[in-house]
Design a protein that fits this description.
It is a single chain. Strand 8, helix 7 (142-152) and strand 9 form a beta-alpha-beta unit. 52% of the residues lie in helices and 14% in strands. It has helices at 14-23, 39-42, 52-58, 69-77, 100-111, 125-131, 142-152, 167-195, 200-208, 215-226, 235-252, 257-271, 282-290, and strands spanning 4-8, 27-31, 47-48, 61-64, 91-94, 116-119, 122-123, 134-139, 156-163. It is built from 13 helices and nine strands. It is elongated, with a radius of gyration of 20 Å. The chain has two domains: 4-164, 3-Layer(aba) Sandwich (Rossmann fold); 171-289, N-(1-d-carboxylethyl)-l-norvaline Dehydrogenase, domain 2 (Orthogonal Bundle), CATH 1.10.1040. The structure holds NADP nicotinamide-adenine-dinucleotide phosphate. Residues 9-14, 32-34, 37, 65-67, 71, 74-75, 96-97, 122-123, 125-126, 232-233, 237 line the site of NADP nicotinamide-adenine-dinucleotide phosphate (NAP).
Length: 295
């Protein structure tokens, strides 16, 4: 059944995700902070809005795909935010990667206005967003999840309700721990191969078929070999995600020494002006320590 949907945040991920909802036949109202970011969507028949409030006033389910926790706060609760336009019974689906604790607080605020919320961060990158093959990790009520599930199916493939509000964000934080440490491992392995005077491309190929094989060895490993750090998933976003992980770990008293190390490497990339690169650029930090070529 065609529904009235809103989509706010039309960047690398949001644009193709919104386009997939439109292709599934739904009516779409969009808001992008940069007016030009709405053009691909209006070209596909979506209606451009001047504020998140206007999006919410016209729609039943409102998707968010912005950058960080303060951005979600501004879009939801700011002066022209969703909360000022959303009708009771409507649903906010936040697909950005943000803090689990803040997510629970946003869900409470919206509930006071009769508005439901799901947290539904994703994994799978730009390719997954374009091909509608994202993994979607959901937190919130089961009944609301069931209502929104057909819409998730227009954007992704592996769709799991993990638990109550915030549980989707916790799952995404876990995903980012594994991704960060694997990028670090691939960076160290390929640098070690090169410093041994061994062809790193052949090492990658040899490893792909065995226990060390992974999507990250395949995709990020190739980026490292090509020295091609066009994003993809930006260093500044990965740094943000590990900040969320480390803040939560600090509150809970959970030691995450490996994650802390990679967080420092991402900090170093930010400091050297590499925040806009793909996070495969972690290899650059490893290379700066030990050099790149064989002796
Ligand atoms: P992006 O290309 O930087 O897009 C973010 C979008 O959000 C931009 O269009 C930006 O508007 C908008 N935005 C940010 N703050 C806003 C605010 N306060 N009000 C209104 N709009 C705002 O980032 P992305 O790669 O699409 O990532 C979006 C989210 O998905 C992030 O939380 C990220 O961690 C997560 N994620 C990304 C990937 C990936 O591979 N890229 C994968 C999984 C999850 P402007 O254009 O005006 O800046």
């Amino acid at each position: 059944m065609a529904m009235k949907l809103g989509f706010i945040g039309l960047g690398i991920m949001g644009r193709p995700m919104a386009l997939n909802l439109r292709r599934a036949g739904h009516a779409l109202w969009v808001y992008g902070r940069r007016v030009e970011s709405m053009t691909p969507l209006t070209g596909a028949g979506a209606t451009a809005c001047r504020s998140p409030r206007e999006v919410a006033a016209n729609t039943d389910v409102i998707f968010l795909m912005v950058a960080d926790t303060p951005d979600v706060e501004q879009v939801l609760l700011g002066e022209t935010g969703v909360i000022h336009g959303a009708r009771p019974g409507s649903v906010v689906v936040d697909m950005s990667t943000i803090s689990p604790a803040a997510t629970r607080a946003f869900a409470d605020r919206l509930a006071q206005h009769g508005v439901e919320m799901l947290d539904a961060p994703v994994s799978g990158g730009e390719t997954g967003a374009v091909n509608a093959t994202l993994s979607i990790m959901v937190g919130g009520k089961e009944s609301i999840f069931q209502r929104v599930k057909p819409l998730f199916e227009a954007m992704g493939r592996n769709i799991v309700r993990v638990g109550e509000h915030g549980a989707g964000q916790v799952a995404k934080a876990c995903n980012q721990i594994v991704a960060a440490l694997t990028i670090e491992a691939v960076s160290e392995a390929l640098t070690f191969a090169r410093r041994n005077g061994v062809d790193a491309a052949k090492v990658r190929t040899a490893l792909l078929g065995g226990f060390a094989g992974s999507k990250i060895l395949e995709v990020h490993g190739q980026r490292m070999l090509d020295n091609d750090f066009k994003p993809g998933f930006k260093v500044k976003l990965h740094q943000k995600d590990l900040r969320i992980v480390m803040e939560d770990a600090h509150k809970l008293g959970v030691g995450l020494p490996g994650t802390a190390l990679v967080a420092q490497h991402l900090n170093a990339l930010m400091g050297s002006g590499d925040g806009e690169l793909d996070s495969a650029a972690i290899v650059k930090v490893v290379e700066r320590m030990s050099g790149k070529s064989g002796t």
